[in-house]
Amino acid sequence: MKILQFTVDCPYPPVSGAEIRNAANARALTALGEVLTVSFTGGPAPSPPPNIRHRIIEAARGRGPWQKRSAHPTVHLIPADELAEAAAIWKNFAPDLVVVEDIALSQLLALAPELGGRTVVDLHNIDSRTLADRIGALSLWQRLRRFREHRAKIAQAREADILAAKTADQVWVCSEADRATLALGPAPAPDFVKVIVNPIPDETMLSLPIADRRYQEIRLCFIGHLGYFPNIDAVKQIGRKMVPRFAASGRDWSITVAGKNPRGIVRHYCAKHGLNLVENPPRLPDLLAAAGYAPIPLRFGGGTRIKVLEAMAAGLVVCATKKAVEGLGLEAGTHFLSGSDAGELAATIVTFAAEPQKAAKMAAAGRAFARDRHSFAAIERSILQAVDGLSARRPAAKP
Predict the structure, then answer these.
(1) Which of 26, 303, 306, 392 is the most exposed place for a label (fewest CB within 10 A)?
(2) φ, ψ dihedrals at 214, nearest 5°
């Protein structure tokens, strides 16, 4: 079997959430045959894993982020030269299965009737919901001033979800919550939308020590793609609401913010509030091992939630809002510390640091959850079952 995977960014090395999911999916698919990954940004992967080849769309080099070039709020309106190059790769490789990353690249699905192969659109997030959340976070005046424009964008995003679902042979989502949120019009066939949960990014983190002394100090580490709106908002909340609580406690504290491609606003907030910013870290285990708590005060977004799994696997106590752990099936008070906002989470962390044995117990429970449900072996089983179901039936004719 030959599998073609289209991604926005090069998955290797896998650092951000999207790269980690894409890399894990590609690795799982090698159990079925040869995998060719084709990305629209970045450079050629220096050393992809065995049985995986990587190429980039040469026509896309140097064009910058697609979001700044596309008139559509969630779809990369692929320029003609990039689309032609992608089609040529598809035709020459002659894949049996094509996996397309997210709604951003859903325009590629339209090539299938001519070029052949079953198709899967892998939704890392429900982007229409994230867009609606982002607009909802604006001030009342901002929403009213551009009301018609915002309403049109949300409608465009939802239409893109429905069109992708009509075009693809199967849809993958990250959680049951995302499956429930995805509005596809008439109810799809039961085996059409598959939940493929996210992996622990680096399973060697499962060996990092969990001991009481690790949680006695207020040492926090937030990791995420720092160009992604929900993560930028989380950094703002950490600076505005957590730092004052820690300062008022009289305890020593430190907060590290690490991730890919930080925006200027992230740099500003880190400098303003005394947060240690680590840009594009080559490795994460050392950063995570140096902390005891993972603050994740997300208010928006959905999808991958890899930062939660990563922190639990590394033995950190996850301190999160309901939004941050949505769809994972975690139990508040057992697997993670829950709070309504960043300020409440900070107060809870101060209390927990005075009872490090409780923190260690929670960290161990979180790690066990991540290990049992999000190991690579579990991901591989889910993907192989999904593809087997796809191969066992003929897709309905498309209008």
Answers:
(1) 392
(2) -65, -25
Closest by CA to 292, choosing from 255, 241, 247, is 255
Which residues on neighbouring strands pair with residue 258, listed in sequence order? 223, 278
Residue 382: how many other CB atoms lie within 10 Å: 16
In DSSP notation, 67-84 reads: GGT-SSSSS----HHHHH
Instruction: Report the candidate in 85, 178, 122 with the shortest Cα–Cα distance to residue 3.
Output: 122
For residues 28 and 49, give the distance between their C-alpha atoms in angstroms, rounded to a whole number: 11
Q: In the numeric block, which tokens belong to residue 96?
A: 């049996």
Its pTM stands at 0.82
pLDDT at 189: 54
Q: Are the beta carbons of 25 and 194 closer than 8 angstroms?
A: no
The tokens for 12 are 């290797």
Whole-number pLDDT of residue 396 = 43
pLDDT at 188: 54
* Distance between first and last Cα of the chain: 27
Q: Which residues of 49-64 are buried (b: 16+ CB within 10 A; e: fewer)?
A: eeebebebbebbeeee
Question: What three-state secondary structure class fits 179?
Answer: helix
Give the whole-angstrom CA distance, residue 113 versus residue 327: 34
Compute CA 103 distance to the chain's CA centroid, rounded to the nearest angstrom.
13
Residues of the chain with confidence (pLDDT) below 50 = 393-399
Is residue 43 within 8 A of residue 60, CB to CB? The reply is no
Q: 317-320 and 293-296 as β-strands: parallel, antiparallel, unpaired?
A: parallel
CA dihedral 195, 288, 325, 240 (to 10 degrees): -140
Q: Any idea of the CA torsion for 274, 275, 279, 283, to the nearest 10 degrees?
A: 140
Cα–Cα distance, 296 to 318 (Å, whole number): 7
For the four alpha carbons of 77, 178, 18 and 223, in that order, the dihedral sign comes to positive
Contact 289, 309 (CB under 8 A): no
Q: Do the Cβ atoms of 52 and 26 come closer than 8 Å? A: yes
* ∠ Cα 161 165 169 (to 5°): 155
Distances 323 to 296, 303, 339, 349 between C-alpha atoms, Å: 9, 11, 10, 18
Instruction: Judge contact between 265 and 232, C-beta under 8 A.
Output: yes
> Cα separation of 336 and 327, whole Å?
14
Strands 276-279 and 293-296: unpaired
- Of 131, 13, 18, whose CA–CA distance to 75 is shortest? 131
CA 94 from chain center: how many Å?
29
